[in-house]
Amino acid sequence: MLDKHPFNSTLETGIRALVVLEAFYPRHCDLMEMTWFDHLIVHTGDIDGQDVPESLHPDLPNRTGELLVRRQLVERSLRMMQQMHLVDVFETEAGIEFCASEEAPSYVELLQAPYSLALKDRARWMADRFAQQENVEIRELIEGQIGRWTTEFTTDDTSSGRSV
Fold first, then answer.
1. Domain count of the chain?
2. What stretches of 25-134 show up as alpha helix (H) in DSSP?
3. Cβ neighbours of 47 (radius 10 Å)
4. For 18-58, how does the pLDDT look when each residue is reduced to its tens digit (9 = 90+)?
5. Domain encompassing residue 153
């Protein structure tokens, strides 16, 4: 059955993940990083700093709510890319990590549509910015940004007494 929603489908998300992992190669990324990077590759403008590329997707007021649902989609997309032999999965002491496979560069090179080229440019920018940073440094930066974003999507979950 074809997906009725081509945007943010498992396939589109998988291609974004593959483009990110290829740009970050040989660095391995965990699921949380891939979730952050999936958001940032299309919303680069959410990161402060010089030489930040323009966001690919519009800055809609409720876009930050995407972070709440993106993790499962990113995980499914990475598993799909693994089944296609484009992503390698590693079990480490820190948990499960993902890396572009040896077949990934050939596939990524085929992506030549203007949107795909823009994704690759942003992925290279993200790799230049984050690839040499430790996970904890990236986490601090992202959580700092998410702290700014949470006012847009934080709700009280009264049944568990926690905020989501």
1. 1
2. 31-42, 66-83, 104-110, 114-130
3. 18
4. 999 999 999 999 998 999 899 889 888 878 777 889 988 87
5. 10-163
